Amino acid sequence: MKEIITIHVGGAGCQIGDQLWELYCKEHGIQRAADHHTNNTTSMMESSAAFSSAESLFYETSHTEKQQYVPLAIFFDNDSSRVHESRKRFGNLMSSDNMIGGKEDAANNFVRGCYTIGKENMDTVLERIRILSEKCDSLQGINVVNSLGGGTGSGSGTLLLDRMSIDFAKVPIHLNTVAPSPKLYDTVVEPYNFCWAMEPMCEKGCTATFYDNEALYNVCGNHLGINDPKLADINQIIAHHISTSFSSCRIGSNCAMPVSFGDVNQTLVPIPNFELLTPSFVPFGSAQNELSMAERGKLAFSPSNTLISYNILEGKMLSSLLSYRGNVTMGDNFECLSAVKKMEGISMGPSWIPNTFSCHISKAPTTLLDDSVLGVVPSEKMLAVTTNTTAITKKLNQIMVNFDKMYEKRAFVHWYVGEGIEDEYFRYGRSILEEKVATYGELISQ
Ligand SMILES: Nc1nc2c(ncn2[C@@H]2O[C@H](COP(=O)(O)OP(=O)(O)OP(=O)(O)O)[C@@H](O)[C@H]2O)c(=O)[nH]1
Ligand SMILES: [Mg+2]
C-alpha cells in the first residue's frame, strides 16, 4: 500500500488527531501509549493484528531489539501545551521530532498564525514532512486536519498548504477541517479567519471536507444519547469519517485496480474549482444498527446524519463517494443507491457528469475504540459518504453574512491591522469567499 502522511495543525487538529490515531492503532493492532509506559516496549504490532496493511500509515524502525511502528503523522500547534497533551497520550509511539510546538498560540488571529508567529516553526514542520516522505516508498497523499476558526489552524494551516503546494507539488493534499458554526463560535472573529483560509482551496488545488460542531453536537444529542458532549466525543465521529472515507486507499477495496488518494479526490472533484466536500455517516446508535441498506442510504443524505449543518438535498449534487466498511456486498450498495436516487428533492448536477455516485467497499471489519461513542456493534456495516454539492453555499453564505456584519462596523479589524496587514486584506478575504459562492452558484442556476 502506498503511504499517506497526516498533519494535525492547531488545537482542534491535534485533538482530532488524538482520536484518529487511537483508532488507527486499534485498527492495525498497534499497542497504545498506556502499554508503552508500563512495559517500555514501543508501538509493537500485536500478534492478533487485524490487518497487515499498516504500512500506509506507519513506518517501521528497529531501534530496539523489537520492531517499532511509527505513525506517518505530524502534530503542530503554535501553543506547545496542546502538542504536549498529545505527546503524553501517545508516549513514545509518536516520534518526538514530529510533535512540534511553538511558544504561544495565535490568539484566534489568522494573521498571527500565517505571517508572524506561525512562520517561526514552519521550516521545521516542512523539514519533518520531507523526512517522513523519505520514509515512504510512494507517498500517495497528504491529509491535513485542522479547524478554520482559530489562528493556527487557519493561518499556519494556510502557510503550510502554501509551502507544501511548492515542495510537494505533485502530491494530492486534502483538508479535513472544522468550519465555524455561528451558534457555537469560540470567538466572533471566526468568519474573518475562515475567509482567508479558503485561499488554498481556491488557488492551490487542495480539496477539503468541512465538518461543523453544530451538526456533530446534534448527532450526539439526537442519536447517541450524549446530551453534554465533550470535544473528544465529536472528534471521535470525525475520526471515524476520515478513517472510513480513506479505507479504500489505506487497506484496499472491492475495485479491480488499487484505489489511490488521488483517485478519491478526482472522483469527488469532477470540475476544477469545485473542491469543497460535505461529510455524512451511518449508522449512529443502536436504532440505526437495525436499518436496511435502503434506509441507511436515505439517512446518509438527510440532515440527521450529515456532519455539517445544512441539508445536502438543498443543492445540486456533482459527485458522491460512498465508502463502506465491513461485510458489505455490491447488492447492499445497489439497494442503498436505488433508495437514494428515489429520494424526494434529490437533484443532480450537469448531465455531462457521467457518474454522480461511486462506491468503494473495504471488507475489513470496522474498528471501534474501547470508549466508542458510536453505539454500534463492531460487526456493523459502516458507510461514510462524501458529497460535492452546491448546498455548501449555504454554509459559505452564512459565514459571509457574519463577516459583513462585523466588517461594516469595522469590528476587531484593529486586532489584525495591529499584526501588520492593511485594510485591503479584508476585502481580499471576502472576495475569496464571494468567488467560491459564485462558482458553485453558477451550477445552481443551470
Ligand atoms: N471539533 C472540534 N472543534 C474544536 C476543537 N477545539 C476547538 N474547536 C473549534 O475550533 C475553533 C477554534 O480553533 P482551534 O483549533 O482551537 O484554534 P487554533 O487553530 O489552535 O488557533 P489558536 O488557538 O488561535 O492558535 C472553534 O470553532 C472551536 O469550537 C476540537 O477538539 N474539536
Ligand atoms: Mg489553539
From TrEMBL:
Protein family according to the UniProt entry: Belongs to the tubulin family.
Domain Tubulin/FtsZ GTPase: where?
54-253
Subunit comment for this entry? Dimer of alpha and beta chains. A typical microtubule is a hollow water-filled tube with an outer diameter of 25 nm and an inner diameter of 15 nM. Alpha-beta heterodimers associate head-to-tail to form protofilaments running lengthwise along the microtubule wall with the beta-tubulin subunit facing the microtubule plus end conferring a structural polarity. Microtubules usually have 13 protofilaments but different protofilament numbers can be found in some organisms and specialized cells.
Q: What is the purpose of this protein? A: Tubulin is the major constituent of microtubules, a cylinder consisting of laterally associated linear protofilaments composed of alpha- and beta-tubulin heterodimers. Microtubules grow by the addition of GTP-tubulin dimers to the microtubule end, where a stabilizing cap forms. Below the cap, tubulin dimers are in GDP-bound state, owing to GTPase activity of alpha-tubulin.
Is-annotated flag, keyword Signal? no
Query: Which GO biological process annotations does it have?
Result: microtubule-based process
Please name the taxonomic classification of the source. Eukaryota, Discoba, Heterolobosea, Tetramitia, Eutetramitia
Query: Source species, please?
Result: Naegleria gruberi (Amoeba)
* Reaction(s) the record says it catalyses: GTP + H2O = GDP + phosphate + H(+)
Q: Which GO terms describe its molecular function?
A: GTP binding; hydrolase activity; structural constituent of cytoskeleton
Keywords per UniProt: GTP-binding, Hydrolase, Microtubule, Nucleotide-binding
Q: Which Pfam families match?
A: Tubulin, Tubulin_C
Note whether Hydrolase occurs among the keywords.
yes
Q: Kindly provide the name given to this protein in its UniProt entry.
A: Tubulin alpha chain
Q: Name one GO cellular component term.
A: microtubule
